[in-house]
């Protein structure tokens, strides 16, 4: 806005171009041309471009107008026109910001006025020269109509703008049309502006070359003072020392300052080194000890077998030792201790894996073949793995699993079955005690299965037994059943009726 | 299944007796083992599904472990 007030010609460039160029141009031409002659002459030639231009323009302003119009027209016909339009929109490039900023700052200096005034002079002078060009351009633009003029006009404003700059800008814009490149350049400049600020402290690669040149310069001086030392240092102390010197040689230091800088940098770098150096024995031993320990732990944890146990062990302890929480707490350290022994055992004999397994089992208080102890202190065996495996395999294939059950899976299944029987015993005990018995009866099992929803009106226990159990066991079931099953069913039906009602 | 016993009856009785601290009647273990078979059926079925969902080939320990808790809960009395 301030600019407009100052240089009415300069600012309207953009806005006039966007708003209503034609009218503004007419006004301008009228304003500029002092004489009414020019005022008469101008609008016509613009309206009738061909005839108007063939005749020599009356005033230099008119020439300038023609010339600019022709240039606009030529610009319109140039293929880059679209780009320029696009550029107008994009105009807000860092450079424009800089220009505007410069204008703001230039209030005091008024550099712009001089620059804008000078181009006008230039316009006048080439305007006379451009008369011949005008004719040629006029020939080209002969076919153009007023509409073209209207279209042309948008660019008009630039002429009035600090013309020299803007025209130069136009030329530069013609080059800029690589908008991507322009943006990249802008970014690059932005980065280049920022980079050094950051880089002064660090100055990685870019300054390196700079530092080299400077280094060479200063090395000449330094060579004058201390010939070989610095050269050797520069050679051996690669980037940091060089950079430091490159940065700080700004102050034209003699040797001491780079040494200081190097010492500063060197102190940090040496700091890590020195600590071990100062405490060589202790620190190094500490580190060595850690290094030794860690690999030992890692493989112990990495053992495939142990995680299996580790996963279940706490739970197993929970389940088998619900009474004692201390066992839980005690179970964890034992687990931690196990790997150590396992390690030692493995180191001793890998062939004794079974032995180790038994030891682990003893450690945990639960073994496969060895006797486990229930929470009542009663020892009990676990189901033979062969039976479990056969069952698991049968059901797995029946459920569509491919291949055999892996040993790992078998371990998990065995664990699950142990838990199942534990749960089963507890539940049956609860039912039996609830019935006031000390003996778990078949009715308890039936009640349990009914509660598990394994038995429902549609699936009778007898059907289940027939489906899953072999004949012998069925006969055993029937041994009692001949009368019992019916009673069961009746009882079951009655129970259900009770439930329903 | 054909030639050999399906399961050691005495073992099942001992196990349940130890866990329940109760006596087990004469033929109750058959029904217990029937229940166990149903549990195994459920467990393996779930493990198979889990293994297929996990993209595993065959039943692995991971799938079984994942399913164990649910299956046990299902067979809670």
UniProtKB/TrEMBL annotation, chain A:
Keywords annotated in UniProt: Chromosome, Nucleus
Domain CENP-T/Histone H4 histone fold stretches: 376-481
Location of the protein in the cell: Chromosome; Nucleus
Stored InterPro entries: CENP-T/H4_C (IPR035425), Histone-fold (IPR009072)
Designated name of the protein: Centromere kinetochore component CENP-T-domain-containing protein
Basic and acidic residues composition bias: residue spans: 353-365
Single GO biological process annotation from the record: replication fork processing
Automatic annotation (TrEMBL), chain B:
Residues in the signal sequence: none
GO biological process, one term: mitotic cell cycle
Keyword Nucleotide-binding in record: no
Subcellular localization, as worded in the UniProt entry: Chromosome, Centromere, Kinetochore; Nucleus
Limits of the Transcription factor CBF/NF-Y/archaeal histone domain: 8-66
Entry GO MF terms: protein heterodimerization activity
Cross-referenced InterPro entries: CBFA_NFYB_domain, CENP-W/WIP1, Histone-fold
UniProt keyword annotations, A-Z: Centromere, Chromosome, Kinetochore, Nucleus
GO CC, one annotated term: kinetochore
Main location: nucleus
The keyword Glycoprotein appears for this protein: no
Homology family: Belongs to the CENP-W/WIP1 family.
Descriptive protein name: Transcription factor CBF/NF-Y/archaeal histone domain-containing protein
Native source organism of the sequence: Chaetomidium leptoderma
């Amino acid at each position: 806005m301030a600019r407009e007030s100052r240089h009415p010609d300069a600012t309207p460039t953009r806005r006039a171009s966007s708003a209503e160029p034609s009218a503004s141009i007419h006004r301008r031409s009228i304003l500029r041309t002092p004489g009414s002659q020019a005022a008469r002459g101008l609008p016509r030639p613009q309206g009738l471009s061909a005839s108007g231009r063939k005749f020599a323009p009356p005033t230099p302003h008119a020439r300038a107008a023609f010339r600019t119009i022709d240039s606009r027209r030529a610009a319109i016909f140039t293929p880059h026109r679209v780009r320029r339009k696009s550029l107008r929109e994009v105009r807000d490039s860092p450079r424009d910001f800089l220009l505007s900023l410069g204008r703001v700052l230039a209030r005091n200096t008024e550099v712009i006025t001089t620059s804008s005034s000078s181009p006008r002079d230039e316009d006048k002078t080439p305007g006379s020269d451009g008369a011949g060009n005008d004719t040629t351009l006029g020939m080209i633009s002969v076919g153009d109509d007023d509409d073209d003029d209207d279209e042309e006009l948008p660019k008009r404003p630039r002429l009035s703008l600090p013309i020299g700059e803007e025209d130069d800008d136009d030329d530069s814009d013609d080059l800029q049309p690589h908008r991507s490149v322009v943006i990249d350049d802008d970014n690059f400049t932005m980065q280049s502006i920022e980079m050094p600020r950051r880089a002064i402290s660090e100055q990685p690669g870019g300054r390196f070359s700079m530092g080299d040149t400077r280094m060479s310069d200063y090395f000449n001086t330094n060579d004058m003072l201390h010939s070989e030392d610095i050269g050797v240092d520069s050679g051996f102390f690669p980037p940091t020392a060089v950079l430091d010197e490159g940065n700080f040689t700004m102050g034209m230091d003699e040797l001491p300052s780079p040494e200081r800088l190097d010492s500063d940098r060197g102190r940090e770098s040496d700091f890590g080194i020195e600590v071990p150096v100062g405490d060589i024995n202790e620190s190094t031993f500490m580190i060595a000890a850690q290094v030794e320990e860690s690999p030992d732990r890692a493989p112990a944890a990495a053992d495939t077998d142990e995680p299996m146990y580790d996963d279940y062990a706490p739970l197993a302890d929970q389940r088998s030792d619900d009474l004692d929480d201390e066992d839980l707490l005690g179970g964890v350290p034992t687990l931690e201790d196990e790997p150590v022994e396992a390690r030692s055992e493995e180191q001793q004999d890998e062939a004794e894996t079974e032995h180790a397994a038994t030891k682990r089992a003893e450690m945990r208080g639960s073994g496969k073949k060895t006797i486990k102890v229930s929470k009542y202190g009663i020892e009990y065996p676990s189901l033979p793995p062969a039976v479990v495996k056969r069952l698991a395999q049968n059901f797995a294939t029946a459920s569509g699993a491919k291949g055999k059950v892996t040993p790992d899976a078998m371990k998990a299944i065995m664990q699950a079955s142990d838990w199942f029987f534990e749960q089963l015993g507890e539940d049956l005990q609860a039912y039996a005690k609830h019935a006031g018995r000390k003996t778990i009866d078949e009715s308890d099992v039936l009640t349990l299965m009914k509660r598990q929803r394994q038995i429902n009106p549609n699936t009778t226990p007898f059907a289940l037994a027939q489906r899953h159990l072999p004949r012998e066991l069925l006969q055993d079931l029937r041994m009692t059943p001949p009368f019992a099953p019916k009673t069961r069913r009746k009882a079951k039906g009655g129970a259900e009726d009770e439930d329903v009602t | 299944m054909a030639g050999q016993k399906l399961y050691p009856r005495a073992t099942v009785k001992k196990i349940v007796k130890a866990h329940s601290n109760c006596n087990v009647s004469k033929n109750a273990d058959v029904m217990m083992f029937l229940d166990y078979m149903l549990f195994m059926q459920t467990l393996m079925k779930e493990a198979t599904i889990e293994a297929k969902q996990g993209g595993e080939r065959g039943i692995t320990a991971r799938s079984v472990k994942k399913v164990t808790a649910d299956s046990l809960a299902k067979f809670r009395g």
